[in-house]
Give the backbone structure.
Amino acid sequence: MSPVQKDRNVRREPSLTPPHYWEHRERLRQRFDAEARVTTYELLELLLFLARPRCDTKPVAKALLETFESLNGVLAAPKDRLKEIPGIGDMSVHVLKLVLAIMNIVLSERIVKRPVLAAWQQVIEYLQTNMGYLPEEHFRILFLDNKNHLIANELQQKGTINQSPLYPREVMRRALELGAAAIILVHNHPSGDPTPSPEDVQATRSIRDLGEKLSVTIHDHIVIGKHTHRSMRSMGLI
């Protein structure tokens, strides 16, 4: 048997040198467990560990934040957009969307058992997280009883990239079905700019006018952008 053949028959031991990122990963875990300060991209690293246990997730986390601007932007990004980032596959997307779903439940629970107008900041936080990064317009309604407790939180319509038509009769029909005394209208602007358009204002006033005839109060119409929001009530538009 030739030396080459002998070499091929030798059983090779696997490398005992761990990947370069293992030590960093363990230090990061220890810092998190010790409640030490952890940056946003490091939190995202830790989250991606669950989906990619044998990979270096630091460059992936940084690429996600660079592309989608914030952690909320990463979690809310469309699945196909997320998969455009090298290193993001189905399991990573699954983990990110699972966290977003949990966040939305936690935030919504903060407003369910309280008068909505007394928990306004929590309402805005929920809406900002839920709708701020959607790629198309969504129209949502919060239905309230006569003590301003939340009866229902419903997505009514999805629009195109720049419009979601509001139909006053459909809005009021649903309010009467639920026995709502008041409603809060909400929609997002995918452009990121929450400034109400003239069409937004006109549609809202039409809903308000019909609501007055049916004893349903329109408390506000909130327009959600990526980083901020606008209240038509505060702007004096309704």
Observations:
- Residues 109 and 126 are 10 Å apart (CA to CA).
- Confidence is low (pLDDT under 50) at residues 2-14.
